[in-house]
UniProtKB/TrEMBL annotation:
It comes from Arcanobacterium buesumense. PROSITE patterns: RIBOSOMAL_L9. This is Large ribosomal subunit protein bL9. The lineage of its organism: Bacteria, Bacillati, Actinomycetota, Actinomycetes, Actinomycetales. Binds to the 23S rRNA. The gene is rplI. It comes from the Bacteria.
Amino acid sequence: MKIILTHEVEKLGGAGEVVTVKDGYARNFLIPRGYATVWTKGAQRQIDQIAESRRKRATEDIEQAREIREALEATVLTITKTAGANGRLFGAVTTADVAVAASDVAGKPVDRRSVNLHTNIKSVGEYSGQIKLHTEVVASIKIAVIAA
């Protein structure tokens, strides 16, 4: 039986894929749980349209991510924190702090989970890190931590 997967199913495929499975597996497991729908010509046309729009959106996203990467790599992200006399911070610079600073430069929100700091930042100085903007685009950033 030909079915269209609506969710990712392990060892079978991802959402939007057309796969052939045994009738019982489709009727008794996949379709009742909402993991798949029956394949028809009309549904196939709809899948083709969705795939085309995803491809267009993906190329636009990659181009936008590359522009943001250039902007981030051209600047040094400055983060101001309170520090003691010896330059040691009260607390640490977190990925959320870096994401806020990167969002200001990029003009687009940056998720804190996409920020990768190479070390824990607990003192004043210059550091480096990476921000994953897209699956194919990673920006190398420079971070300057200064005392408030």
